[in-house]
Design goal:
By secondary structure, the protein is an all-alpha fold. The chain is built from three helices and no strands. The protein has one domain.
Length: 77
């Protein structure tokens, strides 16, 4: 059983690529989209509709990040 877990972990790392590199990239993308959304809201405090695309981008980045983590956890369980 331990051998199977070790092989599964190795395969996950190979399939995902370098997750250690991907996580900072994903985090940076998420932070940039949040900064863009907040910046837009500062420029257009009375017209939040003007920031709709920035909000949707940020929400999409959050979703992608959560789904990636879920997929990896499900694969390892």
């Amino acid at each position: 059983m331990h051998l199977f877990k070790a092989i599964s972990l190795l395969m996950t790392l190979l399939l995902v690529g370098c997750g250690v590199v991907q996580k900072p990239v994903r985090t940076a993308t998420l932070e940039l989209s949040l900064a863009a959304y907040k910046g837009c809201l500062m420029i257009h405090p009375e017209d939040t509709q003007a920031c709709e695309s920035a909000r949707l981008t940020y929400e999409h980045e959050q979703y992608q990040s959560r789904e990636t983590v879920k997929a990896l956890r499900n694969f390892l369980d």
